[in-house]
Target: Probable SUC2 - invertase (Sucrose hydrolyzing enzyme)
Amino acid sequence: MKASIVGALGAVIAAACVSAVPSPVDPFDLGSASHALYPRMSAGQSGDGSNNDKSKCPSSNGTAVSGYQYAPYSEPVRPQIHFSPTVNFMNDPNGLVYSNGTWHLFYQYNPTQNVAGNQHWGHAISTDLYHWENLPIAIAPEKEGEGIFSGNAVIDFENTSGFFNESTPKDQRIVAFYTLNTATSQTQHVAYSSDGVTFTKYAPAVVERNQTQFRDPKVFWDNKSSRWIMALALSQEFGIVFYASSNMKDWSEVSRFQSYGILGYQYECPDLFQVPVEGGPDDGKMMYVLAISINPGAPIGGSFVQYWVGDWDGTNFTPRDQAVRTMDFSKDFYAFSSWSNSPGNKAYAIAWANNWEYSQVVPTSPFRSIQSLPRELTLKYYRTTPQFGDLILNNRPVNLSAISSKTLYSKKSAQGSKNNQTVALNGKGAFDIQATFKLPANTNITYNTIGSFEIFAGDGKQSVKTGIQMGEPTFAFIDRRKAGSSFADSNPFFTDKTSGIIRYQANYTDDQYVLGPLPTSAYLDQSKQDRYISLQAVVDRSVIEVFVNDGELAGTSVFYFDNDQIPAKAQVSVGDNKLELVDLEVKALQSIWKTCQH
Amino acid sequence: MKASIVGALGAVIAAACVSAVPSPVDPFDLGSASHALYPRMSAGQSGDGSNNDKSKCPSSNGTAVSGYQYAPYSEPVRPQIHFSPTVNFMNDPNGLVYSNGTWHLFYQYNPTQNVAGNQHWGHAISTDLYHWENLPIAIAPEKEGEGIFSGNAVIDFENTSGFFNESTPKDQRIVAFYTLNTATSQTQHVAYSSDGVTFTKYAPAVVERNQTQFRDPKVFWDNKSSRWIMALALSQEFGIVFYASSNMKDWSEVSRFQSYGILGYQYECPDLFQVPVEGGPDDGKMMYVLAISINPGAPIGGSFVQYWVGDWDGTNFTPRDQAVRTMDFSKDFYAFSSWSNSPGNKAYAIAWANNWEYSQVVPTSPFRSIQSLPRELTLKYYRTTPQFGDLILNNRPVNLSAISSKTLYSKKSAQGSKNNQTVALNGKGAFDIQATFKLPANTNITYNTIGSFEIFAGDGKQSVKTGIQMGEPTFAFIDRRKAGSSFADSNPFFTDKTSGIIRYQANYTDDQYVLGPLPTSAYLDQSKQDRYISLQAVVDRSVIEVFVNDGELAGTSVFYFDNDQIPAKAQVSVGDNKLELVDLEVKALQSIWKTCQH
Model:
């Protein structure tokens, strides 16, 4: 039935000239630059994208062509490798499911305005989690004033719902769960699709409880109890309620996870999912992670995501401890959601890369907000301190080689090198910068033992910076203080600097893979051995995502250069020269968007 | 024995001309300005404090006179109503105890350098928690390389320790507990004082466990089990261990509070103390609060304080839930500690107003770091959401009338007023600004429905801002983005903007004082009634402390104006004019420090 999907999408693809499905004609061939993604970068072209006949470029977000303000996907603030809607406002990722070789991304979408409201489920698909093809809106409200709020989707392989007939291949039986928001209630509803494009609503609410703050269903098939489980947020009561069902229609409450972690003002988007352990004696073993998004009231201001690692016994989720851990140290990572039915016991996820404190006023037009890079999740064992062992949720970007193009700089294992490096960022504003810093044994560090990337705009003045500061523990930071002032000066919530701590690399043998307190004798004196820290920054016009030590720590910050500037130069520095820059690789990343050419 | 304290302090007072003990001659009489607190503000005076004969101004922090770089307590960055050491580096408050009419403040102090290290217990006393008299260092290490780390103090009324003879009045029997830090261990020690000035060490360690990360004893007499209880941090194991003793010398472990809340890299400064409930059916009832400081690894970056409300049964602390709450929404409030033996079932506390991410490099000289305002704590019942009731730790500054001088502006209950207001901040850089904003019923708010105070430096360019943004919920924020750029531009951790959420004022009758989830029917639609929000900012040269709704939410941020500027003008604004400024009062606060004059 792959064919039928392609068939169903045919008309869409033809209309959606901003799609980026790989084609025999390499869409990434910069040589044939008859259309400038970023007109200002190409001499001799007008700045208004006039190579494109906009009248022939309908929006695949379902919006009339008049909605366009500019050549689609070419705006200076428009990320080139992150998913964003052509026009108007997007927030949470929804309905993430892998079906018949295709990754589905639905998302909270307002098709009529560039602020939140009038919520629909927008829709895009991909075969590699990078190149997205925009599809028509999947689920829309029936009445004005109602909204199709967040939820998730699963494959109903065995047709437990009865929604499908036997001609629909098993892995194409998509059932989506969402919250219907009205002025007086939030109730849980179901819609299903046999072709992955058009959805049919099942009329009755499947879960309701006379509540206005009850939302964001996450459903999974539970092998332990052989039934469907739905997690829901009783948002302003700070409860995650679990329901069970055999047929997806009749649900009964089975347990509750109440008042854990940072409460803030609302719990949202609960996601209970399985994640493989990476390395060590439990390598490959699947464990449960419960993620809860908080908004507002995160300590960092506004929105953030916290999680617990624990056990699901078929009825209850029991976290390993009462501690709360955060998934991303910076301020623009919210409404985290994992993909259902990921192949090969892998866990993939994405999050909305913005913060409700300012998301509706950020200076992007005609669209607002992007999704984070897709991330592959594992649980890795770390010494969070010399005396404590922990399983930490590792999140690294899904393999970027699918979108890497030109290597702009590469230096591997340069012995004893301590030099700084400046690299011109020739390309469309999207780059992958990876370095390894070495701190030799017995080095006396200072406050300036910092390894950093400063990414400058074309004007050479504005910049966004990320780095690590060696210490006990070592910090990672993102600093957008100089990344444009017109928005930052006027908004009291657009925090400039964020930071997190980097954990020890654990030695499974020495540590015996102990969770919790470790014997003091297990102390590792890191100052007496060479230390290596890897830092990766994916910079994409108006967003930077930072990954330390292959995803042990991640941070996501959006930024908004003034005067239509895009990233143009990277300066890699080693502060007081006590660190050595041993490896450095800078790659241009290719836009995932084809521009309109007819 | 008050006399004997005064006697013992006589020599100190004579030498310590920076003391500010109220005297018959009003030390706050600005008319007799023969000594300029802030020379640059007074025409015709040299800027180096030359009115003071520095050779006659020994430091009461125990440092040689050569340590002075400037007329003491007159530097532009020097807060005038917050405690700070004359010279060199201070961090955690320690040994807070009320004894014989005197509030004792000990503090982590490096008497030889303006960075952390060589830790001693500095000492100051007060009769009103504002006017501090510097005393000689109270507890010093015996050997180089050792440090007297944080701890607390109690009154041993019944001489359970045997350290005192009967001639010492009961409420003057001070026993201090501290951690002795060496290269190979952290052990817990005791020192005692009969005169409140000189301390005698009890030689043996009283608690040890072959640990290098085991510190910060907090001791209290437990009426429930009729014994002393000591809380200690197993810092890098994320445990709070409780010990019990009948004689202060022999301690045995009784319970542990393990892996709660944000772990970060270290637990520090546990404080289990009693706090009175304010208002409602339990008014005056004492409840237990456990505060734990985290550093680094707070979500906001670096250091912060989290707390739990719960029960102490004589052996175990049991929090009411697994949620973690924070005590201050901003970035400069750490090592929170409460006073032992506060009179009248009151709870008073103070915290170090800085953050380890940058505290050792902030641009203040010849001293670094200040303590927060003293705060009075209560537990108040709030609707944290329309559907959830909670007891929240309220913290408001101890009555500022003790240090208020001139009223610079006052407008009370100006009917229907919507205007903005600019007030010249005439004084020494310390001011108390209080406003009440009203949002009339049925107002459609916008992102700019903001009530704010912007405090400008004398240059009219630099400023620090605080405010509230109306919404569901309403936010409070502090923004130091424009408060000096030379330090902020160079430090990757000095975050500009912080924010928190404001809870509903609860109605005890309607809500029936329910903790946790409330019936949905209890919903209060605040948009349909007039709302009032009070905002107080205490600005003191290089620090701003913000209190919303009389302490329901508090935030503390330091800031560093460039070019020796101090606060000079306050601009009170109501954004889009949908808020009304109904009350405004601006008062100058008098310096708590007398300058040296001989």
Remarks:
- The two ends of chain A are 30 Å apart (CA to CA).
- The CA atoms of residues 385 and 457 of chain A lie 38 Å apart.
- Chain A touches chain B through 70 residues (CB under 8 Å).
